[in-house]
Amino acid sequence: MNKKLQHIALALIGLLIVNYIANSVYKRFDLTQDKRYTLSEVSERLIDKVDTPLTIHVFLEGDFPAEFKRLQIETRQFLEELQAKNSNIRFRFINPDNIRERLVKRGMMPSQLTVEEDGKLSEAIIFPWAEITYGKKVELISLLPNSIAKTQEAQLQNAVEKLEYSFANALHNVTLKERQKIAVLAGNGELQDIYQYSLLSEIGKKYRLAKFTLDSVANNPQKTLKDLRAYDLAIIAKPTERFTEEEKLTVDQFIANGGKSLWMLDNNYADTDSLYNEGKMLAFPRDLNLTDLLFGYQVRVNNKLIQDLYSAKIPLATGNVGNQTQFQHLNWFYHPLVNGNPNHPITKNVAPVRFRFTTQIDTLKGSLKKTPLLVTSVLTKKTGTPNFIELQSIAKEPKENEFASGPQLLAVLVEGNIPSAYKNRIKPFDTPDFKAESTNNKMIVIADGDVGRNQVLKGKPHDLSLDKWTGEQFGNKEFLINAIDYLLDDSGLIQLRNKTIQINLLDKQRAFAEKRFWQFINIGIPLVLLALFGLGFNYWRKKKYQ
User: Is pLDDT at 149 greater than 60 in this prediction?
Assistant: First the structure.
């Protein structure tokens, strides 16, 4: 009896010791093959910054399609991981059914899904959004971002892959104490504010924006350069007037001193208004006096217009019914629709980007790393300028042998120790702190000034990602936002967009076709086995005790 009591006492003591160790030493183990619940170092650093209560509301509660239950489960498990790392993080799932109108007013638009169950299709509406509140800061998170996914399963895959990036990016925004500064260059005929509103209003939520005019270079170049160097990035959006040598040196030394730059350049003049009004237009080269500057950065933007059989549509009047003009949307080969580099975080899973009267880019040999971001299809044609472009050409059947110029580079990322274009040249003005080379810098050059230009509808700016005539969605806005995030990202946050997760989804068609078989496997066989066990056990008892 004493030995039994000793064993019981030892067992109790052992349990107490194990319980104490479990409470003192906390460890979670990620046994998934793709390590989907293992947080990156970037995320962990952001979590460590949360030193006061942070609340996350997720509007993924309620009755919705089975596939998106998976998104709910993955989101919950990811947030549990965040909470395990920092007890200041709290989350709650909310059913949006009774607050739909309030969510829409706050910018959380619903998603309409097609649901297939038992071979029948139906529609469902969900609000795939989360809201982070940290002090006085509030950040919205789209849990179902737009992508190039053709199926809901692929869209779900993309959504789960981007969970960590979406939440980490929001955490970065709400914990950021000082925002980086972006200069939107002006003074050389750049895009007016109304045509940049869609893009700038979005990036203005994360960065400090200011218009910076280079006109003052003529009077006080040293001060202009000093003022420009206070910014972290410069956006050059479709300049139409020549840059003076003083302006070029100012931009060059901004880059040489570590400033990032996003170039959106039109090397041709192409007036779409005259194309619609007169049925034709003259496209001719535009001299921006930037060729030598970009040449120093091992990039050349050419003058030949690019046509691509894979292109966006434009509306054309095709007749009248009564007093009503009839329009038809036709492919316009001068508006290439371009897929992004699938292996780079800027362009991964981004919808096709629309270009308008674009040229192409050549990269030159050198030590700088050049990464293609946007490349056309192989079915392209180059058109030299000056040249007349006629609207009626849209009705002509394209000849495939004429579209044999191959893939054309339209946007490129340049990284490395970018040399000054004035390294071995006479400077237009003296600057005491001239730098011959920047260290570990980045720039993006795009061969179209209209890639960031939004349309205007009834005097108001239209969403850059949506065509006001055809209703088509494009990836221009997301691409440019990702590009700016990448240029200004020193923490590696945007690399989380490259995270890959494999989700094993149910084959709906096979499940429906083999429904009876699997019902028998899951329901019938267990009942048969249970009956056999009962009969066997009863027989064994009778035989043993008879």
Answer: no
Contact (CB, 8 A) for 54 and 88: yes
CA-based nearest residue to 181, from 239, 227, 140: 227
Residue 112 has pLDDT above 90, yes or no: no
Task: Report which secondary-structure segment, H or E, holds 545.
Answer: helix 525-545
Q: What are residue 350's phi and psi, to 5 degrees?
A: -90, 135
pLDDT of residue 141: 92
Query: How is the chain split among helix, strand and coil, in percent rounded to 5?
Result: 35, 25, 40
- 378 by Cβ neighbours in 10 Å (0-12 / 13-18 / 19+) ranks as middle
- Reference 255, options 481, 419, 488; nearest CA is 419
Q: What is the pLDDT of residues 502-540, one digit of tens each?
A: 665 555 566 666 777 777 778 888 888 888 888 887 888
Residue 371 CA neighbour count, 13 Å, CB half: 18
Helix (H) / strand (E) containing 135:
none
CA distances (Å), origin 227, targets 183, 193, 210, 432, 438: 10, 21, 12, 15, 18
Count of alpha carbons within 13 angstroms of residue 432, beta-carbon side: 3
Q: Distance of alpha carbon 139 from its chain centroid, rounded?
A: 17
Q: For the chain, what is the mean pLDDT?
A: 87
**Do the Cβ atoms of 191 and 448 come closer than 8 Å?**
no
Mean pLDDT score, 81-109 = 90
Using alpha carbons only, give the angle 515, 516, 519 rounded to the nearest 5 degrees.
85
What 8-state DSSP symbol labels residue 419?
B
Residue 241's CB is within 10 A of a number of other CB atoms, namely 13
Task: Please work out, in degrees rounded to the nearest 5, the angle formed at the alpha carbon of residue 520 by the alpha carbons of 515 and 523.
Answer: 115
The alpha helices in 332-447, defined as continuous H runs, are: none
* Residue at 251: amino acid letter: V
As a whole number of angstroms, the distance between CA 83 and CA 47 comes to 9
Residues 226 and 228: their CA atoms lie apart, in Å, by 6
The neighbouring-strand residues paired with 162 are: none
Burial class (CB within 10 angstroms; exposed 0-12, middle 13-18, buried 19+) of 380: buried
Element (H, E) at 426: none
Neighbours of 299 (CB within 10 A): 23
Q: List CB contacts of 362: < 8 A, sequence separation 6 or more.
A: 299, 300, 302, 409
Report the C-alpha gap between 42 and 491 in whole angstroms.
7
Q: What percent of the chain has pLDDT over 90?
A: 52
Q: Is the pLDDT of residue 195 over 90?
A: yes
The H or E element that residue 245 is part of is helix 245-256
> Is 50 within 8 Å of 171 (Cβ atoms)?
yes
Asked whether the beta carbons of 420 and 296 are under 8 A apart, the reply is yes
Q: How many residues does the chain have?
A: 546
Strand partners, 122: 115
Query: Which uninterrupted H or E stretch holds 154?
Result: helix 152-161
Q: How many separate helices (H) and strands (E) can be counted in the chain?
A: 15, 25
Antiparallel, parallel or unpaired: β 409-416 and 441-446:
antiparallel
